[in-house]
Amino acid sequence: xxxxxxxxxxxxxxxxxxxxxxxxxxxxxxxxxxxxxxxxxxxxxxxxxxxxxxxxxxxxxxxxxxxxxxxxxxxxxxxxxxxxxxxxxxxxxxxxxxxxxxxxxxxxxxxxxxxxxxxxxxxxxxxxxxxxxxxxxxxxxxxxxxxxxxxxxxxxxxxxxxxxxxxxxxxxxxxxxxxxxxxxxxxxxxxxxxxxxxxxxxxxxxxxxxxxxxxxxxxxxxxxxxxxx
Length: 229
Known about the structure:
Blueprint: H1 3-21, E1 46-48, E2 56-58, H2 61-71, E3 79-80, H3 93-96, H4 113-121, E4 160-164, E5 170-177, E6 183-193, E7 221-223, E8 226-228
Antiparallel strand pairs: 1-2, 2-3, 4-5, 5-6, 7-8
Helix pairs in contact: 2-4
């Protein structure tokens, strides 16, 4: 098994743990007020906004406090859950794609203070916010990020064959994504993470000009007549 495969298994396991202990809508009515055993009603955890594209949103106080500051949107009423997912409770891909509890399978997911604030909001956990990982998706993007308007949403891209992920760790393409309101988003190649040497296609004509391994980053350009990313 390759290192890349092991990393994917690790991410899947971590997501599974967070889902089992908190990120499951069936658990929402069991959350409690911080420092007490008083249960929160479901209406204090999640709210429906029928007139909005992102109609199901988390309204826990720690989540809202973090999100308003992080996204620079003081009028934010809730943090959207994915509206295209039936069986999963996860953050909306358009606004938190590479959070560990964002879109499954997105490149290089991070355990961010967004998810840690949700854990605090359950009343069951006291997270160590110093343990957060690098999370930059939508930072400071403002309220436009939550409009579902592709032209205003940060990290949409122009459809093309080759490109790099927003953190430059992975190769992929830009194409419309139904999980992100059909806006064009980055989709990673099956073996696109250039931090793992096993992902290098040694049969490629430009393989000798590329380096895959720890510390490697994706850049866009051309080698000879072949476009790379």
